[in-house]
Specification:
By secondary structure, this protein is mainly α. The protein has 33 helices and no strands. It is elongated and about 120 Å long.
């Protein structure tokens, strides 16, 4: 998961960092005392903060020392420290009113949105205040206010970056890319924008394009936590978790200031790259820090088959992103199938339809998966197949996809293709599930491979599920004219439950086997087994049926003992 930095933070990269060595003076020149602007222009906020402390301790404090200390703390990601300083500044009678807006920015990045809104409104009407309130309205889902602040945005870089950020947060990735590209045309020195373009392409599932664009930024800023993390995420999608983890390892080894800023993000993504390893130790602490942490914890519980915990975590979440809608759909669908709850299944179907039918998601892989899921729940399997066929090449070795694809093929009567898809599933959890076994057994029977279906039953321990599979084999084999295995299944069923219907099924299947032996379509040895099965039943009809079979066998000189 890659977390996009908010539009206001883009301003810290509005000017490119000066390349090391550009301003080297002659070695013999006397060293001068550095100025605050020197550090700020290089975005060396640690150096700037250190200089301010030094000047203060030497009795020559900077005129606006506290304001600049807050500024440095903010840009170093220490929003709590910056907030405390701004609180002291706004309490002074001769305070610059714009400090309220800066205080609001700190509250925003600490997730204190109501406090940020109140503080910003106390400040003067400036472009920064408008951008901050614009973002806050997005957080509050206040469309009316958001449109009002949107109208005050101007065609200047800062405002356009803020607008692009909102597009990104609303999953309008192409619109965000268009803004970034337009700004880059006039400001090629704004190299950082390539990282944001790469983020958008990542969200659009164009991982190779994302990697290519990101490389432009990486060449200049090799230790950027955001860029290296995105590179790791691309590797995770393009290759696997190990490749992604190797990229994060390189980031950890650098241990640069930017890495400190991204510690939580790195911990979170390592859990994802390791397929959930350490999820319970890491993710709960990050739920209120990284939005994706809650979603990945829900996924972890789903994989552990802990539906209760998964549902409790996501029940009260009001979805705003496609990922949240999808996950709420998955949880409700799983719960609905588990509890046979129509209500949960209906909710799931609605969530899937919302995502799959949206303009921004309809042509993405998740969007098509959602429409497939929606039609699957509606049992419109021909429509399911249209969507699954369009993305099949991306999921050749994905067990869950192959399971769903196989069920869909079987439901549309494409039994040979369904059998092949079922056999691609490798997960023990899925292959040991009754749903898998029953569908595969049905495919075998429909493909005239009843013996393989019978072997599936023999591998099962005696249980309610094995009894259900016996019923399926008995009835489906009968329908498909595979009477020998139908007779064997009905024979076992009758011994387990002396239901008259099982005798009737066995009688019909045994007569079917006899007819096939007579026609030369079944080995003659099968007749001996059929007679033995018939004699297991205490029914007056048995004697007459067996007598007819034995008479024919005697005429054909077939030994019945």
């Amino acid at each position: 998961v890659c977390v996009c930095v908010c539009g206001t933070m883009l301003l810290s990269r509005a000017k490119p960092a000066e390349v090391e060595g550009e301003h080297h003076h002659h070695h013999k020149r006397k060293k001068k005392m550095p100025k605050l602007d020197d550090f700020l222009n290089k975005r060396d906020y640690v150096g700037a903060a250190t200089l301010l402390e030094f000047l203060e301790s030497s009795g020559k404090p900077h005129a606006d020392s506290e304001a600049w200390k807050a500024y440095c703390a903010f840009h170093l990601g220490d929003y709590q420290k910056a907030l405390q300083i701004y609180k002291q500044l706004v309490s002074q009678p001769d305070c610059d009113p714009e400090m309220w807006v800066f205080l609001g920015c700190c509250c925003f990045f600490l997730g204190m949105y109501k406090e940020a809104d109140a503080a910003a409104l106390k400040g003067p009407k400036t472009p920064l205040q408008n951008r901050l309130l614009f973002h806050l309205c997005h957080k509050f889902n206040d469309e009316k206010r958001l449109l009002s602040y949107h109208q005050h945005l101007q065609d200047v870089v800062e405002d356009q970056l803020s607008l692009a950020s909102i597009h990104y947060l609303r999953s309008h990735y192409q619109e965000a890319i268009d803004i970034y590209r337009r700004i880059l045309l006039d400001n090629r020195e704004y190299i950082a924008l390539n990282a944001y373009v790469a983020l958008c392409y990542y969200k659009l599932d164009y991982y190779d394009v994302s990697q290519e664009v990101l490389q432009i930024y990486n060449q200049t800023y090799k230790d950027s936590a955001t860029a290296l993390n995105l590179k790791a995420c691309n590797h995770f999608r393009l290759f696997n978790g190990k490749a992604a983890e190797a990229e994060l390892k390189a980031l950890q080894d650098m241990a640069s200031p930017s890495f400190e800023f991204a510690q939580d993000l790195i911990k979170h993504n390592l859990v994802v790259f390791r397929s959930g390893e350490g999820a319970l130790q890491v993710l709960p602490k990050l739920i209120d820090v990284i939005p994706e942490a809650r979603l990945n914890l829900v996924i972890y519980f789903l994989r552990q088959n802990d539906l209760g915990e998964a549902y409790n975590l996501i029940r009260d979440l009001e979805p705003t992103t496609p990922q949240e809608y999808i996950l709420k759909g998955v949880v409700n669908a799983t719960l609905g199938q588990e509890q046979e709850s129509r209500e949960h299944l209906k909710i799931a179907q609605q969530y899937f339809q919302l995502v799959g039918g949206s303009a921004s998601e309809c042509d993405t892989i998740p969007g098509r998966q959602c429409m497939a899921s929606c039609f699957f729940l509606l049992k419109q399997f021909d429509d399911v197949l249209v969507y699954l066929n369009s993305i099949k090449s991306y999921f050749f070795s994905e067990d869950t996809f192959n399971m769903n694809y196989a069920q869909t093929l079987a439901s549309t009567g494409q039994w040979q293709e369904a059998e092949e898809a079922f056999l691609l599933v490798q997960s023990d959890r899925l292959t040991n599930d009754y749903t898998y076994r029953s569908w595969l057994a049905r495919c075998y029977i429909m493909n005239q491979k009843a013996r393989l279906a019978w072997e599936l039953y023999l591998k099962m321990e005696t249980s309610r599920e094995s009894f259900s599979l016996l019923q399926l084999i008995a009835n489906d084999c009968y329908k498909m004219g595979q009477f020998y295995y139908s007779a064997r299944a009905f024979d076992v069923l009758e011994r387990l439950d002396p239901n008259p219907e099982y005798w009737e099924g066995k009688r019909g299947a045994c007569i079917g086997v006899f007819q096939q032996v007579v026609a030369g379509h079944e080995p003659k040895d099968s007749l001996r087994e059929v007679v033995a099965m018939l004699q297991n039943t205490q029914n007056p009809q048995v004697e007459y049926i067996v007598r007819v079979m034995k008479k024919w066998a005697k005429e054909k000189r077939i030994a019945m003992h």
